[in-house]
Write a structure and sequence with these properties.
The protein is mainly alpha-helical. The protein has one domain (11-138). Helix content is 88%, strand content 0%. It is built from 5 helices and no strands. The chain has helices at residues 3-9, 12-41, 43-76, 84-107, 112-138. Helix 3 runs antiparallel to helix 4 (84-107). The longest helix has 34 residues, at 43-76. The radius of gyration is 18 Å and the shape is flat. It starts with a helix and ends with a helix. The chain crosses the membrane at residues 21-39, 45-64, 85-105, 111-131.
Length: 139
């Protein structure tokens, strides 16, 4: 199939399933890797890994909320609810992310690589779910 035909088949439910699958995969990877990081690098690095994963997961969830609201608005036209609350939540989460990153880097003496790994979990799991979706479409 061509890229355009694949995009025509991509529905709102596919999007929601992909994001929820990525969140589920992130949780599984975190549960598996957290004890290993704790054992090898200490509890501070494990905490930074968890902080990064929570930030990444909350970003995916916020993206799900934002895109669901935008898609509903596009489907309903002028009758849709205002996006103000969703956008407010998005910017509040963004501000809290900055605060949490600062506080965790300031007070936890762990590996910055663990924090980066936690943040990368969202990209990794979303990529895996996207590849699963592409595989399902091409079979």
């Amino acid at each position: 199939m061509t890229g355009m035909r694949l995009m025509e088949q991509f529905t709102d439910e596919d999007f929601k399933r992909t994001i929820w699958g990525a969140l589920r995969l992130m949780a599984i990877v975190l549960v598996v890797t957290l004890p290993l990081v704790w054992w090898k690098a200490g509890w501070q690095s494990a905490a930074l890994l968890a902080v990064g994963a929570v930030i990444s997961g909350s970003g995916l969830y916020e993206w799900l909320r934002l895109m669901t609201a935008v898609m509903a608005r596009m489907d309903l036209g002028g009758e849709a609810k205002p996006l103000g609350m969703v956008l407010t939540g998005f910017f509040i989460r963004l501000g809290l992310t900055i605060v949490v990153l600062y506080v965790s880097l300031r007070f936890l003496d762990g590996s910055v690589y663990a924090l980066a790994g936690g943040l990368a979990l969202g990209v990794f799991s979303l990529s895996v779910e996207g590849l699963r979706l592409m595989k399902a479409w091409t079979v």
